[in-house]
Design brief:
The structure is a homotetramer. In chain A, strand 5 and strand 6 form a beta hairpin. In chain A, the strands form 6 sheets. Chain A has a 5-stranded antiparallel beta sheet, covered by helices on one side. A 5-stranded antiparallel beta sheet of chain A has the order 9-8-10-16-11. A two-stranded antiparallel sheet of chain A has the order 5-6. Chain A has a single domain, classed as Chorismate synthase AroC (Chorismate synthase, AroC fold). In chain A, helix 1 packs across helix 3. Chain A is built from 9 helices and 18 strands. Chain A starts with a strand and ends in a 15-residue tail after the last helix. Chain A is an alpha+beta fold. Chain A is globular. Chains in contact: A-B, A-C, A-D, B-C, B-D, C-D. Chains A and D meet through loops of A and loops of D. Strand 11 of chain C pairs antiparallel with strand 11 of chain D, so a sheet runs across the interface. Chains A, B, C, D: One of its GO terms (molecular function) is chorismate synthase activity. Chains A, B, C, D: It comes from Pyrobaculum arsenaticum (strain DSM 13514 / JCM 11321 / PZ6). Chains A, B, C, D: Its cofactor is FMNH2. Chains A, B, C, D: It is an enzyme of class 4 (lyase). Chains A, B, C, D: Keywords: Amino-acid biosynthesis, Aromatic amino acid biosynthesis, FAD, Flavoprotein, FMN, Lyase, NADP.
Chain lengths: ~375, ~375, ~375, ~375
């Protein structure tokens, strides 16, 4: 449905051109410092307003925390966040009614929800709804910080341009100072060029991102159906446009022999660890204290300005569609921030499931 | 934990060298024809006993249905299936105690469960435990058959050998008449050669499989967190050794432009459908009546006979490990059957979630 | 946590004196007629504004539907409803800070949430939060109406005054035309007298209500942990101040012999049914097509104006507390509406779980 | 369905006259001492074999732990327990086929499962299936012991005979040395007399039990839908034949005024606590460190030897039924043990949900 997680549970709602979108975040213990600024920071990261030609009318989100926070701390009760929709120009979408856009959710919604769904701006299927996920991710990241864990991602492929040079987690985090989070400046320049070209031609591009989670404690996850890998795959494929995922070295591992693929176990600082980390920090579904990383691949934005073949559902006959509304040349940058958020939410959920963070008492209580 | 699904729910248990493994299947309506033969057929498919050199001591599973079935039909109550473990030679594993095998779950289990876990034969992390999933999959496949849906998979890559020629879903199903389910005879021959070579050298290989689900009705899945893609990704990554997944055309979609990636919508038999199906039958997380397909990539079996570097956890110093027990040269064939099962379970769960199959009354009741 | 239900799922949020309370209702199929008026009607029923001396400053709730509804129908997506909190006078509560009110949740919240919780107006534990449940109940009642089922309750005891004369379900529904829903006019007069007396003396009273669900189809519920009785008990005890529940004839059944307690099975209109219905319409946890009914007992409002003994948590020494804010002389009337709502939500959830209402397609779609 | 709990999860299966009944217990951390003897002790308590005339052919259960336990400790993996059904004489039940027993689940099962369910011995609805719950309760009690909490219950009413004298929790525990756990010897004698009389007359009686949970830490439970009271109500009503529940002083509270009902808050050993405990240890759904207690009322066994009116479902005409099989004169003693188990399971689940017991590492690991 629209709820994700077991002990940290987020419930999202809202359509793109409706009154608002939002999220209820449940399971956060009392006493976590949390301000509107924490939420705003992540919502702003998602917007990439600084690339003006990419988002010509970019504006910061307007949101409110309706519950669960008092005096800069969580109360232990559900945190409801509403992100108000701006006055949108929906007339672009009038032509699309009953003419499902190829590659978009329109056809599926028509079959499942009939004439009742709000198709304007993509409605419930709009990438815009990931803003609610990103707001929840801001809270999850603060929970992770309690145990010294952090999540960050970057773009590794865009419009066919791939990042090829080696990098560290520090490089990943620093890449956010650039126009797009790309560790390799040459690749970044080429990517921006591809984006400009596609914007000019009314087309779109896909790409790939890599998410890292560092400092995640050992012992999270379970052998069969609570595997960290499986829960994060679920999380990642919940983000619109995701079409593939490689865990750790991913598909390359499938081409290796066992003697190559296995990461030797070594003593590190008096504790057992991996010499290499091709497996991405998880063995048998359980974290071992090594960094987690995985790559996620996204298809191009389905909305393009080129004419496309579709069906007029009222007449049930072929039709041509030309989209005239706003669209993102690539969903990759925004999806990256949503994927960071989903990763943080999933891992914070596991911290609570495993009891690493307790909830029978406040996180800190100077009164007691 | 060890339960998967919402309305069709499977709960698995058991360690590789313990008394038994098994599964409880909950949510099946009364009146579904089900016999031991249905279960046995799937358990046999998983074993590939016919490739003698691959499974030198291959024997069919011994199992019992303990509840939920009477006179060849389901009762509507939980179906418990126990698969008895055979007298296993665990002495191979004595040396491994406190010497975690690289690439295996040992190290993670040691960190999470301490000295309490049963490491013999891989314990709870053993690929053997997927037999319980396969038994549950047999039931799920019968539920899918009620609406005319079927699931089948095949091997598309093994030890670096790839299937390259085109094929149909009929080819996929017919490939099960061959020693391994590979649609391309040349590729099959090369794969068998690679397997033999690695068996001789005490090494292992990974590969990839493709799962198809055909006849799945429209309207299953939900826009945000009950996406069919996300639930199937969760399902697939629950199978041991899975490291990557491509939905539909997968990573290739990420390299296309929107105008190429979108599948045109056309009229098919008086209804809207896709001209091509690069997206794998799901739009916005919801089925549209087109076939679903995805590829899953598996790493090589971590157990190999070559010496490997590990740590002696008792002394916390480097150690060398040489595994002498039985192992599968590749997990790919067995995992394929488990992936078919997980796919069938996930989709049957969605049939129940959406109410396509009702549960307030028996499937058929000549009495009424 | 703050989510209830499996296929119809409500998630509530909000503190009494915070910005707003609200609810997200998930799982409703597309095409259910739903207007603000439907919600308002139930919110108004909960307020009993017509008894002026009971609610001196009674005002209708201000609420908004933020998502999931378009043109008077549900979209199939989550329905978020926000009920704005009015400018509340919180100064009454300043004295209560660190002086937990006996009988209220204050002490428990202090222990679990420390200084971080919002104690004003009872915060998250306030009876006010049941308005969100009542809003969700309005939607659930409309789902029940699809299959001809309806839920209604009445007061059977208040301040020690009991309803003793026999009545029908029609009487129960008609009792809502009176100041309080009580089928017996003499009892009603006595109850109003008791309420007035306690209001004057600054004390409060408890009581009991009975909930009926008529027209519920057969075959809902499951034998072990999805029992209708157990799910409704869970639902009922989720409403604040509930301290006891009698299912059907309840505790009286415990005093009978088997030969008296069993309801004879008879042919009714060509189908098997019960001659009497002491068991309250459920056998073995499953509905049989007979009316469901149960009684729920509520303790008196803990907030009273009489001085009470408590502890000053800052000094950890005895203290006396005198509450000066507004309080309800009895929670029974409002809780009754909340219990109707929880009953409707639980039963509508079971209609979806069992597939009686489908969700792979809209409820009605003239387009198709 | 047949799964109960969130972080401690039990899944039961089995029909009374099928091959076996059983339970899978999931979520127990590694390192909990657990032997067959722990399970057997609780299964034996449920049987009351020492009252020979009550259970003429009483025999201890035969069971096996199939997984999750090694060398006297839990492994952290699911614990599957199978309780084998004995060779039962099912011929008693032949006459009952298509003639539903009044008061039993037969009619409901016929409507929901049609001719497919196993009616022999009550099938899935048999009280016998609570043995699986009791086995799981044995494990939950050991988890509670980790934090110093314990659960025990006693009979407070049977066949109309009530316990009236005051007692302590020690009295409750000591009452288990008697033939039936009744704190008052006079009441016990009268109850045994009533049981004998009803056994002789082929009738049955109901009654009431009280469950105590002492030593439960503060801060468990949540304000809205994870209320301890609501979860325990759900737990209690999951036991067959339960028809009413009083939490704490229960219905008596509903007759008091607020000034009487509220328990004064006092300083106890330097901490805040309750002077009296009419509310049963829970405020606002959350534990406060005081003992929990509640009473549960059970209807008489529906199976009696007296002739009863029913319907022949094949002919759809009135019929008379005379049951000739074995039956329990009262379900109260066995249900008491099941209710203790459900209470322990629910509270242990909350210990895990709140993170009081962690699961990222073993409970104790001398190796580390």
């Amino acid at each position: 449905m629209n709820t994700f997680g077991r002990e940290l549970r987020i419930t999202t709602f809202g359509e793109s051109h409706g009154r608002a979108i939002g999220v209820v975040i449940d399971g956060v213990p009392a006493g976590l410092p949390l301000t509107e600024e924490d939420i705003r920071k992540e919502l702003d990261r998602r917007m990439f307003c600084h690339i003006h030609w990419l988002n010509p009318r970019c504006e910061p989100e307007e949101f409110e925390i309706l519950s669960g926070v008092k005096d800069g701390h969580t109360q232990g009760t559900p945190i409801a966040i509403v992100i108000w929709n701006k006055k949108a120009i929906s007339s672009y979408y009038d032509e699309l009614w009953m003419k499902p856009r190829p590659g978009h959710a329109d056809l599926a919604y028509y079959l499942k929800y009939g004439k009742f769904y709000d198709h304007r701006g993509g409605g419930r299927a709009s990438g815009r709804t990931t803003a609610a996920i990103v707001a929840a991710g801001a809270v999850a990241k603060k929970l992770l910080a309690l145990v010294g864990a952090e999540v960050a991602g970057h773009i590794v492929e865009l419009g066919g341009v791939e990042v090829k040079r080696p990098y560290t987690f520090e490089d990943v985090k620093k890449s956010w100072e650039k126009p797009l989070p790309v560790v390799d400046d040459d690749a970044l320049a080429a990517m921006l060029e591809v984006l400009r070209k596609n914007a000019a031609e009314g087309d779109s591009v896909g790409g790939g991102v890599e998410i890292w989670a560092v400092g995640v404690p050992q012992g999270l996850g379970e052998p069969h159906f609570g595997k960290i890998r499986a829960d994060l795959a679920h999380a990642a494929f919940s983000v619109p446009a995701v079409v593939a995922l490689d865990w750790g070295a991913g598909r390359q591992l499938a081409k290796m022999r066992g003697s190559e693929a296995n990461d030797p176990i070594v003593v590190k600082g008096g504790k057992p660890g991996l010499e290499t980390n091709k497996i991405g920090g998880v063995l048998g579904g359980i974290t071992i204290g090594e960094p987690l990383y995985f790559r996620v691949w996204l298809k191009p934005t389905p909305s393009v300005r080129k004419p496309q073949r579709t069906v007029d559902l009222a007449k049930m006959e072929p039709a041509t569609l030309q989209f005239k509304g706003r669209y993102d040349v690539s969903v990759v940058p925004k999806a990256l921030v949503a994927l960071e958020a989903m990763t943080a939410i999933t891992l914070a959920d596991h911290l609570l499931r495993a009891g690493v963070i307790r909830r029978d008492r406040p996180l800190k209580d100077p009164v007691v």
